[in-house]
Amino acid sequence: MAISVIRGLSEIAARYDGFVLDVWGVVHQGGPAFPEVIDCLRRLHELGRSVVFLSNAPRRAVRVERLLASKGLPPTLHRGVMSSGEITRMGLEARLEPALAQLGSRYFLLGSETDDDVLEGLRYDRVDDPVAADFILAIGLDDRRPTVAHYDATLTASARHNLPMLCVNPDLVVVRLGVRELCAGALAQRYRQLGGTVHYFGKPYASAYPPALTKLGVAPGRRVLAVGDGLETDIKGARAAGLDALLVTGGLLADALGIDRLRLPPAAALEAACRDAGAWPDAAIATLRW
């Protein structure tokens, strides 16, 4: 299946009224926001197009928004951020889904304590022993324990006690300043292998998209383009939500495609990667530029 490869968003921007953008791998990779992305967003703003960010960041949306501003992305260029952390919080605050309604209030954290803001201000209590918890809140791996193997004993014991895990970031890996780092999705993958139950929040799952589209403010029936660098998350999620999808190849896939961030991928390698993932974007672009 041939995938249309474009050199700039200007080639297709007129087809869409709104844009849902991934953050990590599209806007930045741990450093400042890419200058071509800021320029592209300025062009969309001048055309009156709506833009929101939908991120699998396992933290509150307001923190992601502040982070984007600190990386040089003016808040005037978008309508806000929706994060998997915010979606998790909304779910645990409302407790409308049967799986969440049955949970108790005590959770065991997997991840850095400095990132534990998802349930701040809600009636949930963190405990230090998974045996005393009602569920696991998996936000990521601690820098001091960077491999899944570091968590195997805890995951095994938790699965034995039938603790449900809430995975606040379905991503398996992210590239930070050129180095691949594991995400909460890798912990969830191992937990399922051990027989544990996992509930996911964020892309590609259906609950991620309605709050982002509400924030986008585009009327029903108008065309929306989702942009991301993850085939398993951004592209599959967009397709399932009925959105068109643009794959940024210079992010997560760059090494596998044998390219640097700014170079267009070989067609054969791109098609092979999409075929292996079972995810087909409407088009691909090296980096989000105009």
Secondary-structure-based class equals alpha/beta
Low-confidence stretches: none
Q: Give the fraction of residues assigned to helices.
A: 25-40%
Q: Give the radius of gyration.
A: 19 Å
Task: Describe it.
Helices cover 31% and strands 18% of the residues. With 290 residues, the protein is α/β, with parallel strands linked by helices. It has two domains: 4-85 and 204-285, HAD superfamily/HAD-like (Rossmann fold, 3-Layer(aba) Sandwich); 104-200, HAD superfamily/HAD-like (Rossmann fold). The strands form three sheets. It has a seven-stranded parallel beta sheet with strand order 1-14-13-12-2-3-4, with helices on both faces. The protein has a five-stranded parallel beta sheet with strand order 6-5-7-8-11, with helices on one face. It has a two-stranded antiparallel ribbon with strand order 9-10. The chain is globular. It starts with a strand and ends in a 5-residue tail after the last strand. The mean pLDDT is 95.
Can you lay out the helices and strands and say which pair or pack?
Blueprint: E1 4-5, E2 18-21, H1 35-46, E3 50-55, H2 61-70, E4 81-83, H3 84-94, H4 98-101, E5 106-110, E6 125-126, E7 135-138, H5 152-160, E8 165-167, E9 173-176, E10 179-182, H6 184-193, E11 198-200, H7 209-216, E12 224-228, H8 231-240, E13 244-248, H9 254-257, H10 267-277, E14 283-285
Parallel strand pairs: 1-14, 2-3, 2-12, 3-4, 5-6, 5-7, 7-8, 8-11, 12-13, 13-14
Antiparallel strand pairs: 9-10
Describe the structure concisely for a colleague.
This protein has 290 residues and is α/β, with parallel strands linked by helices. It has 10 helices and 14 strands. The chain folds into 2 domains: 4-85 and 204-285, 3-Layer(aba) Sandwich (Rossmann fold), CATH 3.40.50.1000; 104-200, Rossmann fold (3-Layer(aba) Sandwich).
